[in-house]
Specification:
148 residues; lyase activity; Prolyl-tRNA_editing_YbaK/EbsC; aminoacyl-tRNA deacylase activity; YbaK protein; five-stranded mixed beta sheet; 5 helices; alpha/beta; YbaK/aa-tRNA-synth-assoc-dom; lyase
Length: 148
Amino acid sequence: MLHRAGIEFTPHSYVHDPRADSFGMEAARALGVEPGRVFKTLMAVVDGELCVGVVPVMGSLDLKALADALGGKRSQMADAAQAQRATGYVIGGISPIGQKKLHRTVIDKSAAQWSTVFVSGGRRGLEAEVRPDDLVRITRAVVARIAR
């Protein structure tokens, strides 16, 4: 999808350890990257609609802030099976890019402080390094403070 959109990115592979406590922190360590530059993709349900929150791996998703950013009232984390079915990716490898369907997406404001950020490339052990503004454009995301 990034290629088709003409977006420059750099893929980074590493050997995934299925015993890792945090897939995102594992990626940061394996790639030797500041954890604040590595973002995880979390699926949530906002007022009954499946949505995407993209936050730094060392933080957590503020569900109220996500709902506010999307003009919603209630939100909760999506069921893992629901997230996998809706995106076409497995947990730990869900990318905000190239999902089966474009879901409303919010990217944490902290991404803007970096020249590039890392997001899942669609499988465990693969990260895509991309400019934050390109990530916003390809996902049609809203940018807001949604991380704790």
